[in-house]
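Now produce a polypeptide, keeping tokens residue-aligned:
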Amino acid sequence: MLEVTLIKSGDDFYKLSGADVALFNEYSNVDELIEYDPSTLLEENMAYKISNFSKKEYDGIDILKNTFNATDYNEYSNDLIKDFLLNIVDNIYYFQRITPSMLRPKRLLRISDKLSKPSASFEKIDQGETISLQAEPDAIYYKDKDELCFKNLNAINRFFMGIDSLYREATDDEIKVFLNQNFIKAKEGFFFKQVKVNNRKKLLY
């Protein structure tokens, strides 16, 4: 079984030594996956999906398109920046953002009968030495199905730069500018509010 964790730092991924375990589970409370559409709101038991994801053209998607080989990655050093975390378990890729709040210094009170001292042990950890893990990942990619699942589009823009703009609808002001172009001749009585969702998306390409 392949279990490896990578840290994205700048333009490269680095292997996190010792983190060769599964850090996340799949979404536990999701009964239905629906193809992403900005006009569709999720209910509690739903998550979005983007099918044929590796066929899309987003920055950062190459690691999903290529055959993964852990030996291709250098070891992570703590002096590198931490953009986001990628935990790979076989053919399932779990993504989590790393925000400044997840890297703040921590003071921990550890209580265990397996410590070197039988009593409670107090420990202070400096900034950057720990990464707080969320209860569930921000996104899950299933390589066998070529399907990306997520609940919040804004959360995954850090992994795939520009994905939010590709699904954004043109604003009313952008539509007005477009309709005022010299090569556009709108039918008499046509109003910018009549431009529907699908065409609002196309205007941004």
About this structure: Residues 191-197, 200-205 have pLDDT under 50 and may be disordered.
